[in-house]
Amino acid sequence: MRTTPSPMTLLAMATSIALLAGCSSTPDAGSAGSGNHLTLVTFGSAFQKAQERAFVQPFEQETGIGVTVESPTDLAKLKVMVQSGKPTWDVYVAGQQDVPAYCGTYFDKLDLGTIKRDDFAPGTVHECGVPVDTYSYVLAYNTEKFRDNPPTSIKDFFDTAKFPGTRALSNDPAEGNLELALLADGVPAKDLYPLDYDRAFRVLDRIKDGAVFWSSGAEQVAAMEQKRADLILVWSGRGYEAVKNGAPYAPVWQDNSYHWASLAIVKGSPNREAAQKFIESAVSQKAQTRWAEAIAYGPANLSATPKLDPAQTDWDSSVPEHRALSWQMDNEWWGEHQDEVIQRWTDWTAG
To answer: In whole angstroms, what is the distance from residue 255 CA to residue 70 CA?
Structure first.
């Protein structure tokens, strides 16, 4: 039976809640626009924890500016906030295609005067976003199955006769699935755009039967640890995580798709100056060094000097030899056509 608390009980409950709030470990949010606080929105999980250690805590100590970290990122929520004219988010961890797509509408232009573009891979710094981490969407193979005849390029991922077995890949085409199919079919990286959809899907048809599509980092790791994919297109950081846990896989860096996430300032941010300071701090050499040592993702600032173990180096997308074998997506093209690509991909996977 449900009973109604007495007034005294309600008063006691309210007092307890107030006391608990006073003991909260959440940083003092301060007042909106006060300049002594900002809100960072990121991906969550281990990624968020590493950012807190590498970026947030040192920034708070050095500047006295408090940082509240929220997750996950949500473009739909961001759009509503900006359109309302009262956003409560300040710094947003944005996908590389989102920065050019929403520059000036949902993200503000940055002051890039203190950013050394030469410290970052060509084409990664944008007027509305600076890269904060890197990873590659890279082919990996089960070393137990392909011990004597390992694959050497993305072409082998689509060759089911020479390399039979289960394939796994992202269910998000924005990782570069169509581009990789075209590269495997002989299209040079410089000629990928505009994407030839029909040609790309003809190549993807070769592996469609029996292909497994993952939708999260955790699913990638599980597929590798449980050896459910003989060949897998995987985020390099998650590949390292699986190998560290004992999964028998090795990366193939030829034709890897070089990716990054960027820090952007939400349009109309009430703490724009603090947000700018945070971004400058997070992409600095020291912060990027801490980042790469805290998690298996590469530093976006290539002047960083992390101390990595051999396995981390094997899976690090920022290593010069690995970047030399990579290609980059045309983010401007994607910013204009991403809805179209996603629709074509959805139709193909459902057909």
So the answer is: 34
Q: Residue 32 has what pLDDT?
A: 53
Cis peptide before 173 (omega within 30 of 0): no
**Interatomic CA distance for residues 197 and 202, integer angstroms:** 9
And the tokens for 30?
Answer: 């301060």
Confidence of residue 46 (pLDDT cuts 50, 70, 90): confident
Q: Which residue in 252, 179, 261 sits closest to 217, CA to CA?
A: 261
DSSP H or E segment with residue 139: strand 130-142
Q: Does a cis peptide bond (omega within 30 degrees of 0) precede residue 188? A: no
Q: Beta strands 249-266 and 107-108: pairing type?
A: antiparallel
DSSP string, 198-265: HHHHHHHHHHHTT-EEE-SHHHHHHHHHTT--SEEEEEHHHHHHHHHTT--EEEEEEEEEEEEEEEEE
87/70 Cα distance (integer angstroms): 14
Helix (H) or strand (E) holding 284: none
Asked if 193 contacts 333 with a C-beta cutoff of 8 angstroms, the reply is yes
Which DSSP symbol is given to 54? Answer: I
What tens digit of pLDDT does each residue of 211-267 get? 999 998 889 999 999 999 999 999 998 999 999 999 999 999 999 999 999 999 999
Residue whose C-alpha is closest to residue 259's, from 161, 179, 191:
179
For the stretch 276-304, pLDDT in tens is: 999 999 999 999 999 999 988 999 999 99
Q: Report the C-alpha gap between 232 and 223 in whole angstroms.
A: 9
Place of tokens 């048809």: 205
Helices (H) and strands (E) in the chain — how many of each?
Answer: 15, 10
> Rounded to an integer, what distance in angstroms lies between the CA atom of residue 262 and that of residue 276?
13
- At residue 139, the pLDDT reads 98
Please report, as a single letter, which amino acid is at residue 273: E
In the three-class reduction of DSSP (H, G, I as helix; E, B as strand; rest coil), residue 178 is classed as helix
To the question of pTM greater than 0.70 for the whole model, the response is: yes
